[in-house]
Amino acid sequence: MKVMVIGRGGREHSLIQTLAKSEGVSKLYAAPGNAGVEAERVAIPETDQEKLVAFAKENAVDLTIVGPENPLLEGLVDRFEEAGLRVFGPSKAAALIEGSKHFAKKLMADYDIPTAAYEAFTEVEPAKAYIREKGAPIVVKADGLAAGKGVVVAQTLDEALDAAEEMLVNGQFGEASREIVVEEFLQGEEFSLMAFVNGRDVYPMITARDHKRAFEGDRGPNTGGMGAFAPVPNLEPGAYEFAVESILQPTADAMVSEGRPFVGILYAGLIETNEGPKVIEFNARFGDPETQVVLPLLENNLEQVFVDVLEGRNPKLRWKDATCAGVVVASKGYPGAYEKGRPVPVLDSGATFTVHAGTEVSEDGYVSNGGRVLLVGSEAANLPVALENVYDHLQQFDGNKDFFYRRDIGLSSVTASMSHHRK
């Protein structure tokens, strides 16, 4: 099979790394890809639908996988399907589950899918009145896409009121924050659960945990994710089954009932509360950086899984009995302003692997070309060993003024499992 992966980040590189290991794939294209991809790079941006379709036709591409959310919400999958091309991802109508927080919250309310209580607002005064009535901590979200940065978990009333003002009055996220969702703050441990979905067919993957805040101790601004590991140890008994049976399956069924059947990767960002898992957010594609730690543990041939799901067959997912952890190296200043073109140290492997996210090639080797530059990951028998491998390898970035990484990815879970074993 000839396969094309659309996108340029770490998620897409991870997809390509996994596909490259498969005997069923004869040719891999990345449009546009990044400097690390083991594929032929195609200089077409993710948003140029006509050129992407033309390329897929001219090169007899058998399967196209759309990585990022923006082209999905712009209807790239619909355009490929109109052209009679096989493509994996949700339609524009189904991708709205990520494209509008208000749509997703209303869907969950209508179909009794567990999530935080909320209200949506387009005017600032009613939003502020609601925030004052509910008190802090409280969560303020831009309705539309804001590259993972449109969420403020406000610990104080002032912070929440400022966030509402910034989004609705000052247009902080442009079109994305013309409407906001204000929801109750949920206490608990977060985890992510992705599934391959075709209409009512739901094939869940293993759990993962992402770390969204920029700095150690879960401090600093929200980012696209600073590191992850899979699977998540010490979830409450029954939490996984509940998430599949009471969240993923009913959501897939609800999308069919709404006339927006979902085909692709449904990503549920979940939180374990005293009342069981609840939904924080849905995404309409592979999570980043969760994909980088989930896919290395998949035993199936990935392209066969995509084909099986598209053709209505159960892919019978199989997973290694192992753990995978990954830590993101980011440009200094991220998620705010940062410089590009900074030299990236040569990464030797060994017990680790590297996933490129924001890199380019210069005469002198790899240079940074994004906020999240790369992820160093490791597969191991357990989480402490995987993390030790990664952090040993990351020492070469110590003292480097151009980049930073979090030194506490997964550590709270390691501590929790150790105290759990002591009991």
What is this entry, summarized?
InterPro entries: ATP-grasp, ATP_grasp_subdomain_1, PreATP-grasp_dom_sf, PRibGlycinamid_synth_ATP-grasp, PRibGlycinamide_synth, PRibGlycinamide_synth_C-dom, PRibGlycinamide_synth_C_sf, PRibGlycinamide_synth_CS. Strand 19 (359-362) and strand 20 (365-368) form a beta hairpin.
CATH class of the largest domain: Alpha Beta
Number of helices: 13
Count of distinct structural domains: 4
Helix content: 25-40%
Kindly report the CATH topology of the largest domain: D-amino Acid Aminotransferase, Chain A, domain 1
Distance between the termini: 51 Å
Computed structural class:
alpha+beta
| Parts with pLDDT < 50 across at least 5 consecutive residues | none
Shape: globular
Number of strands: 22
Q: Can you summarize the main beta sheet?
A: 9 strands, antiparallel
Strand content: 25-35%
Q: Name the CATH superfamily classification of the largest domain.
A: ATP-grasp fold, B domain
- Average pLDDT score: 94
Q: What is the alpha-carbon Rg in Å?
A: 21 Å
CATH architecture of the largest domain: 2-Layer Sandwich
